Amino acid sequence: MKDISAIYQAISAANESILYATSLDTFYQGMSNALCENGPILGCVVYTPSDSSANPNCAAFAGARPLAVSADNVGQSFTEVLFVESVLKSGKPDIRNFLAHHRMLSERDGQPIGIASALALPLKLEKDPSFGVVIFYSDEENIFDEPVITLLTRLLNNLIFAVNKFITEFARREKEIFVHANGEKYRNIIDSIEDLYYEVDLHGTLLYTNQAFARMLGYECQDLVGMNYRQIQTEEVSLRVYKVFNAIYKTGVPTASFDWELVRKDGEKVMLEGSVQLTRDAQNNPTGFCGILRNVTELRRMVKALRDSEFRFRALTNLSSDWYWELDADFRYKRIKGRQTKADLHQDSLIGLRPWETPFEIQVSGGWKGFQLMLSSKQSFRDVICHRFLQDGSPFYISISGEPVFDDEGQFEGYRAVTREITEQKIAEERIQYLATHDVLTKLPNRVMFSQLLNVEIPAAKRYNRKFAVLFIDLDRFKVINDTLGHIAGDELLQETASRFRSILRESDVIARLGGDEFVVLLLEADDVPSIEVVARKLLSAAMSPHVLAGQECRVTSSIGIAMYPADGEDEQTLMKNADIAMYFAKEEGKNNYQFYSSEIQSQSLERFMIEENLRRGLEREEFSLYYQAKVDLKSNTISGVEALLRWHNAQLGPVSPIKFIPIAEETGFIIPLGKWVLKKACEQNMAWQKQGLPPLCIAVNISVRQFSDDNLLNDIATVLHDTCMDPHLLELEITEGMLVQNPTRAINLLTSIKKMGVRLAIDDFGTGYSSLSQLKEFPIDTLKVDRSFIRDIATNADDKAITNAIIMMGKTLSLMVVAEGVETMEQETFLRDHACDQMQGYYFSKPISADDFTALLCAHSKKM
Ligand code: C2E
Ligand code: MG
Ligand code: MG
Question: Which residues are CB-contacts of 224 (< 8 A; sequence separation ≥ 6)?
């Protein structure tokens, strides 16, 4: 039979006992005693949260307890452990109402103790997340029903309220004692320090913290007091802290540096480092712990970042082929990290050496000395290239970049730097550089490199008062070889010529290929004209000795122009230009020779330039005209023919002699359209005279070498004859001996074709070339014009007389018409007539004159007849 009033009584006695308690322990004990004395409660056991383990401690008990409790009855009973665990796990009451027949509970030491039911209730303290358990035993079965549990729970709530009050009050009292003992002075000092100061009792309840501590955790000081240290730490850290506290408690030895992790009010974690030591009372009994903590969150974060970066750096250096290294303040390698790339480059062997004591060469101005200066002045350096040769002779290039290192006080500590291997890149660069500065075909330096070398030499020569020469070499007739034998043969010729030139020059001389068939030599050690001439002659004969190309032996000659430093120019441009001018002059002088630059050459070359510039537009500007010079029959003294001679009057240059402009028109190829124009104009004029009723005349037109080798020549002649309707017999083409000798087979074919058209052929300026009269038999020639040079001195010079006579005789035997050119005097005319020369041409009879004048001359003459 349940006696509720007895329970009420017991609970009110327990409530009362709580009021009179003086410490926490008497508190629990008083309640237990009161409960057991007055009613159906047989026993009461209080378990409070443990400092050392997850299992609560038995803090107080009264009355009967079940079996298996240790001798002093303080420890835990096995069955109670089960109750406690079940409550801690569920956080709810554990009710066992029918235990009368459980011997383990109802008997003790063989004697019945009468426990028939049990109730375990959670004991939850306000500021402590962990909680205890209170177990009630009764001798009455089924006593712990709903109303009784409510009553007991209310009792425990009172207890909790009281305990909290008690703890706060206890802490306040302890603090008062401390303050009283140490005085306001220490409190102020402790509150003013930046480090965190704390004091806890032996249970870990905070008794005192300074302002810094509260600030750090986001609390007010008074909030913290009374809190358990577990409430401001994670469980894991609490356990660790407990162990430390415990060890200090046992040994009394304080720790100076202990790692804490506290949890702020806002949940954020703070890393701290600090000390723990025991606090003692007047009797030297331990009362708790105190210590100083320092916030090391930032420090730890930095250390971690540093460690991470060190790790990343190590990983990087392991991955890349770069090396990281450091020099000490004495510029000696103190640390080298990175992958070993080459077998014979041991990084360790460099430690202790200075960079300039290693087998590397450096590529900065001033070499290692310059680098030392840079280091001494604590400058950073970037992409400095060093190289060395490995044991197998292969080059090894590195690029280094570094910066000085200073400590916090600004004291120089050395350098830190990185090295990157750039061998492949460097070799590729060198190859590109080689290609950019060399001619691929001949392997000689090219124009770019020559220019660089010349620009190095000029200031050096200036400083040391030295002279040097620039020789421009151009192969003569190279184009003909290229055109006739093909490009491969042309290339071979250039290669061979280049190596011949190179072999006769000294090492110190430079030879470069400027392009095409142009070479240039920088002659450094020959500063007087005679020694330069020796080299020039050697170059000429080197070019001239025969080449075998495409199975054919052929010869090329060369023309050389020479400019001297400083007389002919003090800069690259002038020197090159003047050597070029001199070379052109050598060409004009008949090729296969050398010429020194001079100011006369300069003016000629300027003229040449002007002619070239203006010639091309001469046709459209109608600056060309034809003059006509009569040929006279020496027997009948009548005009037997006429030669058309080209005239050019340019607005800027005035009248220009064909002797000057014809060779230029030849070279530039302009002679082709110009020659066509002459042919057409001459035929038109001849037809015009006929149309005027004048007697038909044979008109001679000069054909140049270039025209002769032009494949369209036949066609052009046919077209003009067709267009003008002139009788082909009235046209005579004047060619020179040279054209016949060069390619005789082609010449014969072409001349035969022309002949077939009915056009006459003459050899102009006969006697100046190398052809013999006997050779002429082969060609279908009609007329031989004896060169003016034989006629000039014919009256006085016996040789000229003999030669002219022989030519006339031979011409006769070959049935050729013989014409003497340049007849200026009666004596000459007489001689020619006496020696049966057929015709004459020259100023004596008539100068070349305009078409109108010639019309008049022709009119006058035909009337005379
Ligand atoms: P060439 O064909 O031998 O012409 C004769 C040259 O001798 C002409 O010079 C003429 O004016 C000059 N001459 C004639 N009689 C005398 C004389 O008694 N005394 C002197 N000192 N000279 C005399 P020009 O007109 O100056 O022509 C020079 C050369 O230019 C020509 O020599 C010819 O080779 C070339 N030429 C002229 N016109 C043409 C042309 O239309 N086409 C080509 N391809 N060449 C031409
Ligand atoms: Mg002529
Ligand atoms: Mg002539």
Answer: 206, 209, 213, 214, 217, 232
Q: Could you tell me what percent of the chain has a pLDDT over 70?
A: 89
What's the CA gap between 326 and 332, in Å, rounded?
8
CA of 834 to the centre of ligand 3 (A): 22
Tokens standing for residue 61:
């008990």
Query: Distance of CA 395 to CAs 130, 338, 361, Å?
Result: 75, 20, 11
pLDDT digits (tens, 9 = 90+) for 457-512: 999 999 999 999 999 999 988 887 887 788 888 999 999 999 999 999 998 899 99
pLDDT at residue number 445: 94
Closest Cα partner for 726 from 756, 691, 761? Answer: 691
Please report which confidence band the pLDDT of residue 865 belongs to, taking 50, 70 and 90 as the band edges. low
Cα-Cα-Cα-Cα dihedral sign, residues 630, 632, 638, 642: negative
Instruction: Tell whether the model's pLDDT for residue 322 goes beyond 70.
Output: yes
Cα 643 to middle of ligand 2, angstroms: 7
Confidence at residue 1, expressed as pLDDT on a 0 to 100 scale: 46
Question: Best mutation site among 619, 645, 794 for ligand 1, i.e. most ligand atoms within 8 A of its Cβ?
Answer: 645
Which ligand 1 atom lies nearest to the CA of residue 824? 18
The pLDDT of residue 177: 59
- pLDDT tens digits for range 106-153: 566 666 777 888 888 888 766 566 678 888 888 888 888 888 888 888
Residue 193 CA to ligand 2 centre (angstroms): 121
Residues 386, 406: contact at Cβ < 8 Å?
Answer: no
The rounded distance, in Å, linking the Cα atoms of 331 and 333 is: 7
Beta pairing partners, 414: 405
Say yes or no to pLDDT of 51 above 70. no
Distance from residue 764's CA to the centre of ligand 3 (Å): 5
- Cα–Cα distances in angstroms (integers) from residue 784 to residues 243, 505, 812, 816, 840, in the given order: 134, 48, 10, 7, 11
Question: What confidence score (pLDDT) does residue 623 get?
Answer: 96
Residues whose beta carbon lies within 6 Å of some atom of ligand 1: 629, 645-646, 657-659, 662, 675, 678, 702-704, 734, 764-765, 821-824, 841-843, 848
Q: Which residues pair with 736 in a beta bridge?
A: 764
Ligand with the closest atom to the CA of 662: 1
Q: Is the pLDDT of residue 69 over 60?
A: no
Tens-place pLDDT, residues 815-854: 999 999 999 999 999 999 999 999 999 999 999 999 999 9
Two tokens, residue 595: 């010429």
- Closest ligand 1 atom, CA of 666? 44
CA dist., res. 341 & res. 84, Å (int): 69
- Using alpha carbons, select from 82, 80, 83 the residue that is nearest to residue 70: 80
Give the mean pLDDT of the chain. Answer: 86
Ligand 2 midpoint to CA 427 (Å): 63
3-class state of residue 136 by DSSP: strand
The one-letter code for the residue type at 652 is Q
Q: In what order do the strands lie in the sheet with 468-475?
A: 510-515, 518-523, 468-475, 558-565, 594-596
Residue 110 is given by DSSP the state T
* Distance between CA atoms of residues 817 and 838, nearest Å: 6
> Ligand 1 centre from 798 Cα, in Å?
26
* Sheet bearing 57-63, strands edge to edge: 57-63, 41-48, 131-138, 117-124, 94-96
- Please give the C-alpha separations between residue 687 and each of 72, 626, 692, 713, in angstroms, as whole numbers: 159, 15, 9, 21
Residue-wise DSSP of 672-687: HHHHHHHHHHHHHHHH
Among 414, 385, 395, 381, smallest CA distance to 345 is for: 395
Task: Assess contact for 14 and 31: CB atoms under 8 A.
Answer: yes
pLDDT in tens, 234-292: 888 888 888 888 888 888 888 877 888 899 999 998 888 888 888 888 778 888 998 88
**Residue 21: CA count within 13 A, CB half-sphere:** 27
Ligand found nearest the CA of 842: 1
